Every structure is written in C-alpha cells, then in structure tokens.
Amino acid sequence: MSEVRRVCVYCGSKTGAGPVYTAAAASLGAALARRGLGLVYGGGNVGLMGLLADAVLAGGGQVIGVIPQALVDRELAHLKLSELHVVEDMHQRKALMAAKAHAFIALPGGYGTLEELFEALAWSQLGFHPKPVGLLNTAGYFDHLLAFLDHAVGEEFLQGRHRRLLQVGAEAEALVDTLL
Questions:
Q1: Which of 4, 91, 97, 98 is the most buried (most CB within 10 A)?
Q2: What pTM does this model have?
Q3: Ordered per-residue pLDDT tens for the chain, 180 residues
C-alpha cells in the first residue's frame, strides 16, 4: 500500500435530518485538511458533499471533484475547487475518483453512497486494489447495515476477513487515523 495522500469520500447530496450529519462532514473535512490529505469526491456543491468540500478548502486542503456533465448542466457543480473534472457519466466518475484516491471513506448518504462504498469494498475483496476503506458511522446511522454485514458472515455469504476490510469509526479524527 502506498502512502495515503488523497481520500475519496462518498456521501449524500442531502444534509440529512439533523445537524449531527453536517457536523460530521465538517469534522471529516477539517481532519483531512489538518493532516494535509487531499479530498477526492463527487464534485457537488449541495448536501454533505458541498459542506465536506468547503471544510477541506477552509482548512487549506486540496479538493478534487469529479462530476458528470449532466449534473454540471443542472448547476450542481462546486466551482471553487482545486480541480474539477467533468466526465460523461457515472461510470467514468467512479473510475476517476478511485484512480485519484489512496483510501475511501463513506459518510451517511443514500443509494449512491452505498453503491460506491460497496464497489470499493468488492474491488478490495477481489484484490483489485489494496486501499483502505472506512465508514464514518455518525450517530449510529450505519448500525443496521453493519448488523446486516455480520449476518452475511453468519450465513456464510461473506468471509470474516472480508468483513474486516471495512474500518468503522464514530469520530472523524479516529477513523482517519485508522486508515493512515
């Protein structure tokens, strides 16, 4: 595993039901910037995505956004990033984000966040990359998902060693330290 210099963060394009989620995004952004780690993310200016990017930028960090043209057309691109890569589609977006990152973290989010998280985990399980994968379990948001993964191990659809590929933390600082 090479040195972690940039972290790809998957997270919601919404802010969630309470201030705990926005605080977690800001905390993660600040933690990345304090450690001199760049952010790679989906390039949006809304929801947790926008808050996370703003927190890294406010801390003097580098932010690389990758966004499909269709979302740029809807005026959802964050235009104050260090770099903004506009791609054709979601497949190109995910591939470029993964290529530019040395580690992955998921914050709370919906279908897109979960899909991206599980793709990073599946690629790790298959040996396609050695990059660490983390989950910021803000206010227990992912507790049921983690219980399901444990159930998958118990039902022998997931090996314990593959379950352990996902590093979980409740606080941004500690999770980032775990992945370094």
A1: 97
A2: 0.96
A3: 468 999 999 999 999 999 999 999 999 999 999 999 999 999 999 999 999 999 999 999 999 999 999 999 999 999 999 999 999 999 999 999 999 999 999 999 999 999 999 999 999 999 999 999 999 999 999 999 999 999 999 999 999 999 999 999 999 999 999 999
- Which domains does the chain possess? 6-179 (3.40.50.450)
Place of tokens 């932010």: 63
